[in-house]
Amino acid sequence: MKAIITGSTGMVGELVLANCLNSDKISEIRSLVRKPTGKKHAKLTEIVIEDFEDYSMHHDLFRDIDVAFFCVGVYTGQVPDDKFKKITVNYAVEFGKALENDSPQATICLLSGAGADMTGKSKTPFAMYKGMAENKLAGMDLRFYSFRPAYIYPVTPRKEPNFGYKLIRVLYPLMKVFGEKYSIKSTELADAIFHVGLGGADKSILENKDILKYR
């Protein structure tokens, strides 16, 4: 199978990429990046993208793709609202359009988030924009799966984006006590995204508890 991914330098995307590189089922993976990472692997091709809303200069990039992983994301409050929408909605939609154009019927996996609202009624930017992206991709001629994790515990140590995430990381052992609806490890989420991308799932929208079935 041939795969394409964007967001491979992020907490989850990096782990999805590792799954692809380690799998005998994936023969080639194209990773879309803002700048070269220096990562080398016989199956990996990195393509530097200057504008994630315009793939017109990258002919055949999405051709003959079997599975696509969109793992780009930004935390609420990190960027202005217009840029947050651009990254969350526009980047995902243009990625999907390019895939649909050159590899119709491919599978696309979207890293969304808990609370994503496809009804368009939410007043919360995160929920509204994630829902918008889901709606747009679900309407394309692709096999679509959206992953809505709750709190993602970063197995690999990292610099937390804000104090709230530092606190939640400390409280993670307590969160686990409350069950499978409220948290997931980054490795579990990445494994599930990879497995569903290759083998499918019994529903297109996967909440945190659903995701854990496919880890």
Give a brief description:
This protein is α/β, with parallel strands linked by helices and 215 residues long.
Sum up the structure in keywords.
6 helices; 37% helix; Rossmann fold; 215 residues; two-stranded parallel sheet; alpha/beta
Q: Please, could you describe this protein's structure?
A:
The protein has helices at residues 13-22, 81-102, 125-138, 163-177, 186-199, 208-211; strands at residues 2-6, 28-33, 44-48, 67-70, 107-111, 143-148, 151-153, 183-185, 205-207. The chain has a seven-stranded parallel sheet with strand order 3-2-1-4-5-6-9, with helices on both faces. The chain has a two-stranded parallel ribbon with strand order 7-8. It starts with a strand and ends with a helix. The chain has 215 residues and is an alpha/beta fold. It has one domain (2-213): NAD(P)-binding Rossmann-like Domain (Rossmann fold).
Give the structural class.
alpha/beta
Distance between the termini: 20 Å
At CATH level 2, the architecture is: 3-Layer(aba) Sandwich
Number of domains: 1
Helical content stands at 25-40%
Mean pLDDT: 92
Give the helices and strands as they follow along the chain. EHEEEHEHEEHEHEH
How much beta, percentage-wise?
A: 15-25%
Q: What's the total helix number?
A: 6
- Main sheet summary: 7 strands, parallel
- Biggest sheet, strands in spatial order? 3-2-1-4-5-6-9
The fold-level CATH name is Rossmann fold
- Unreliable spans are none
Record field, number of beta strands: 9
Outline, from the CA principal axes? globular
* CATH class category name: Alpha Beta
Rounded to the nearest angstrom, the radius of gyration is 16 Å
Output the CATH homologous superfamily: NAD(P)-binding Rossmann-like Domain
